[in-house]
Amino acid sequence: MQYSEKVLDHFSNPRNVGEIEDADGVGEIGNAKCGDIMKMYLKIDGSIITDAKFKTFGCGAAVATSSMATELIKGKSIDDALKLTNQAVVEALDGLPPVKIHCSVLAEQAVRCALSDYYTRQGIDPVPIVGEIKEPEE
């Protein structure tokens, strides 16, 4: 399996690892088939994501996609974060092997999950904004 330099870099030197104690939104998503679990923490000020951290239990591609997803949403608006797609994560990493694309889907879902939690904490129904969060398929 061939990984890009960016995937190897984000796996070897992941950005934004850890948790945010007083996070405004926390999302956890897993894939039962492959065993990857991602937990995403967001700090939100107004409508801007001021900080994003993650904890991932999984393969190198899962760590790399989590790392890249946090990099892509930090400093951005919630609206921009909601537009984050797994394809954008894959492109930012200069590609992933086909059998690892599900890791990028997990990263997208983890962001959505954390934003869903943020809206729930605000007393707002997240479904019309974030959409349904489904367990990712293999």
Explain what you see:
This protein has 138 residues and is of the alpha+beta class. Strands 1-2-3 form a three-stranded antiparallel sheet. It has a single domain, classed as Sufe protein. Chain: A. It is 43% helix and 18% strand. It is built from six helices and three strands. The protein is globular. It starts with a helix and ends in an 8-residue tail after the last helix. The protein has helices at residues 5-12, 60-73, 78-82, 86-92, 101-121, 127-130; strands at 25-30, 37-45, 48-57.
Q: Within the CATH hierarchy, at the fold level, what is the topology?
A: Sufe protein. Chain: A
Instruction: Choose one word for the global shape.
Output: globular
Structural class: alpha+beta
Question: Architecture in CATH?
Answer: Alpha-Beta Complex
| Spatial order of the strands forming the largest sheet | 1-2-3
**Helix and strand succession?**
HEEEHHHHH
Query: Which consecutive residue ranges, at least 5 long each, have pLDDT under 50?
Result: none
Q: How much helical structure, as a percent, in the residues?
A: 40-55%
Q: Give the total of domains.
A: 1
Distance between the first and last residues' Cα: 18 Å
CATH class: Alpha Beta
